[in-house]
């Protein structure tokens, strides 16, 4: 699914592209959002869009196991403020 997120996409688009049931796609998308790999964009439109939220994943072989490190995307201060404000706005609308 990550390979097919070359641009913001809905769960329906990913289900079609990946030839997977929508229920599976929704479940996996939520797991990836919770893990910090994806961002969920809810802009009031009919469907939520998802985007990748990391620059790279580094896998190293340790002594007894594989080590996994996810490198988050770099964000400018204005991008961070915009994300924070969007979250505050969404929270106040739901209250």
UniProtKB/TrEMBL annotation:
Per the record, a Pfam family? HTH_20
Which InterPro entries is this protein grouped with?
Answer: ArsR-like_HTH, WH-like_DNA-bd_sf, WH_DNA-bd_sf
- Domain of life of the source: Archaea
Name of this chain's protein: ArsR family transcriptional regulator
What organism is this sequence from?
Haloferax denitrificans ATCC 35960
């Amino acid at each position: 699914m990550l390979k097919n997120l070359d641009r913001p996409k809905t769960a329906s688009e990913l289900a079609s592209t990946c030839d997977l049931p929508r229920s599976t796609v929704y479940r996996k998308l939520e797991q990836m959002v919770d893990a910090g790999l994806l961002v969920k964009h809810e802009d009031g439109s009919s469907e939520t869009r998802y985007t990748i939220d990391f620059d790279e994943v580094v896998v190293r072989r340790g002594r007894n196991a594989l080590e996994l490190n996810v490198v988050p995307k770099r964000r400018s201060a204005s991008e961070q403020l915009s994300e924070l404000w969007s979250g505050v706005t969404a929270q106040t609308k739901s209250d």
